[in-house]
Amino acid sequence: MGEVVHVSCGVCKKIWRCMTGSGLAYAYRENIVAAFQEKEWEKVTGLMAMSEFPAYDFKYRLAACSNCHNVVSVPAIALSEEEEPYTGLCPLCGERTEEPAAEDNLEEWRQKTACPACSSRRLEVTEIGNWD
Prior knowledge:
There is one protein chain. By secondary structure, the chain is α+β, with helices and mostly antiparallel strands. It is 17% helix and 33% strand. It contains 3 helices and 6 strands. It has helices at 29-35, 41-49, 106-112, and strands at 2-9, 15-20, 57-65, 70-78, 86-87, 123-131. The strands form 2 sheets. Strands 2-1-6 form a 3-stranded antiparallel β-sheet, covered by helices on one side. A 3-stranded antiparallel β-sheet has the order 3-4-5, with no helix packed on it. A hairpin with a 5-residue loop joins strand 1 and strand 2. The longest helix is centred in the middle third of the chain and has 9 residues, at 41-49. It is globular, with a radius of gyration of 15 Å. The mean pLDDT is 91.
């Protein structure tokens, strides 16, 4: 089950609502591929073909986009726990985001990430619900 998080900046007051984690629909390969942008489909399909189902892990992760100045949920897929996951592009502008949050450590991400809108270090992350 995934979480819905509320990300806000204490300085510029900008607010974002994002999904993290994964839900039941992402047990299917076609749904995982569709979570990425069309120009990434071939890359993601190739990664998934390198591993037997369900030996890969899919999750949405928080990321700051310095291009469109938003906090977004980006899809990420890893073939193993040791391997660095492939992280999708910003769903709003299609550009590469800054380093996404580790799935289990939003506090660390919050501390090291500047607000993409005003560059302050006053982001707050609050879990407001779950999704599946």
